From TrEMBL:
Region forming the signal peptide: 1-19
Superkingdom of this protein's organism: Bacteria
Protein name: Gliding motility-associated lipoprotein
Keywords of this entry: Lipoprotein, Signal
PANTHER family registered for this protein in UniProt: FORMYLGLYCINE-GENERATING ENZYME, SULFATASE MODIFYING FACTOR 1, 2
Lipoprotein recorded as keyword: yes
InterPro entries in alphabetical order: CTDL_fold (IPR016187), Sulfatase_Mod_Factor_Kinase (IPR051043), SUMF_dom (IPR005532), SUMF_sf (IPR042095)
Any GO MF annotation of the entry: formylglycine-generating oxidase activity
Domain Sulfatase-modifying factor enzyme-like residues, every copy: 45-428
Lipoprotein found in the keyword field: yes
């Protein structure tokens, strides 16, 4: 009897010690990760380190009806970097301006050669293998292109501007319909699916897309019936006072295009630094997003804990607290991207402000089908896709959503070509060696 009691006490002690070790490790990693930041470029948003770990995906304290419908599964996620904030108007403007200036140089400027990089002296180049590259150090913020002297010297630049129609546009407004970005990605999923087929060229598995990059500013009118939101439609993306607000009106396809541009932009900037590894920006998977949102906390409803208000009775995030009640401490619609306190990993607004695109296709049974190590439901768009293959997971809830969507486990979807006034995004970068970072 005494031996049995001793064995039970020993097991209880071991179980408690194990739990204590796991929670202390999680807390320690959260503390360390909050101190590790990753600057992608001077003047850009920082990224923070998210350590690897496991968690119960979909875990919540919903009522019994929702418990019957929700799925829960323990999964593990590798470490990665994540934007500490949602992508703001200022950073997305860099993307738009880059596309604008590229089109101006390649299509409308007469003396194109003066804007291209010169090959090293004595080096022979083949145009088919060495395409001309724009000298972005010269372009800078674009003022050299768009000043009066250069526009007079290159009259074709005026074709990038609208002529006044006396109703919607004024003379001098940029024709944003021309701001199209073409890019390509290698589709590893398709290549793997065809691994036993006869050898085919890389081109067959290359995904190509052309996307208009300018945000749909009309979402401020389209998303609301009989609402006077015209000032937001005109000013939200363009006004300097809103530069640090999250970009909205961006579809999933536009967000994907942004990740490709940002990858090239950052890698070209640091191209001569051989010690710096190349970065590949992408949208987070649903599992990565939910894991990061939890901030190292275990079995909590929200990124900060289990209560929607703090001890001072103030809301912990920017969301719609009741029917018709959009008013909160930080404003009536979106808030600056560093509003409210960050979670344990140093991430801002993982609940509220704007909901966020993830990389994954939306499915009601994804947890039952996906693996338990770095689960994802990947699919690059195809023209032949059925409607349910165009739905993407949206996480985090927004300024116009109720408390239910503030939960870490809450999920919804939107179609990949649809833009909304309450959906934005942030990006992640995978990490190959976590140990080197946490030394």
């Amino acid at each position: 009897m005494s031996k049995h009691l001793l064995w039970v006490l020993s097991c209880c002690f071991s179980f408690t010690a194990c739990n204590s070790f796991n929670s202390s490790r999680t807390a320690e990693l959260a503390r360390k990760s909050a101190k590790v930041t990753y600057s992608t470029n001077p003047g850009e948003q920082h990224m923070v380190f998210i350590p690897s770990g496991s968690f119960v995906m979909g875990q919540s304290k919903e009522n019994e009806i929702f418990d019957q419908l929700s799925q829960q599964r323990k999964v593990s996620v590798s470490s990665f970097y994540m934007d500490e904030t949602e992508v703001d108007n200022k950073l997305y403007h860099k993307f738009v301006n880059w596309v604008r200036d590229s089109i101006a140089i390649t299509n409308y400027i007469t003396d194109k050669e003066s804007w291209y990089l010169k090959p090293p002296p004595g080096k022979k180049t083949d145009p088919s293998f060495d395409p001309k590259r724009i000298n972005w150090a010269k372009v800078g913020d674009g003022r050299l292109i768009w000043n009066k002297v250069n526009r007079k010297k290159n009259p074709d630049l005026e074709r990038m501007f609208l002529s006044s129609d006396g109703l919607f546009s004024n003379k001098g407004d940029l024709d944003v319909s021309q701001l199209r970005y073409q890019y390509s990605l290698f589709d590893f999923k398709q290549a793997f699916a065809a691994r036993n087929s006869p050898v085919r060229g890389r081109e067959e598995f290359t995904f190509r897309d052309t996307v208009n990059v300018y945000p749909d500013t009309t979402v401020w009118v389209k998303d609301f019936n009989y609402s006077a939101n015209d000032p937001l439609m005109r000013n939200y993306f363009s006004h300097p006072a809103l530069a640090n607000y999250p970009v909205v009106g961006v579809s999933w396809r536009q967000a994907l295009a942004f990740t490709v541009w940002r990858t090239n932009y950052v890698n070209n900037y640091y191209g001569r630094n051989k010690k710096r590894r190349k970065s590949e920006f992408r949208l987070p998977t649903e599992a990565e997003w939910e894991y990061a949102a939890r901030g190292g906390l275990v079995a909590k409803e929200y990124p900060w804990g289990n209560n929607l208000k703090n001890d001072c009775d103030c809301l912990m995030a920017n969301f719609k607290s009741g029917p018709g009640n959009y008013v909160k401490e930080k404003g009536i619609y979106t808030s600056p991207v560093k509003s409210f306190y960050p979670n344990g990993y140093g991430l801002y607004n993982m609940a509220g402000n704007v909901a966020e695109w993830t990389a994954d296709l939306y499915s009601t049974s994804v947890l039952a089908k996906a693996g338990d190590l770095n689960p994802r439901n990947q699919h690059l768009p195809q023209r032949s896709d059925a409607k349910d293959m165009q739905r993407r997971v949206v996480k985090g809830g927004s300024w116009k959503d109720g408390p239910y969507f503030m939960r870490n486990a809450a999920r919804s979807f939107e179609y990949q070509d649809t833009a909304r006034s309450n959906i934005g995004f942030r990006t992640v970068v995978s990490i190959s060696d976590e140990r080197a970072i946490l030394k």
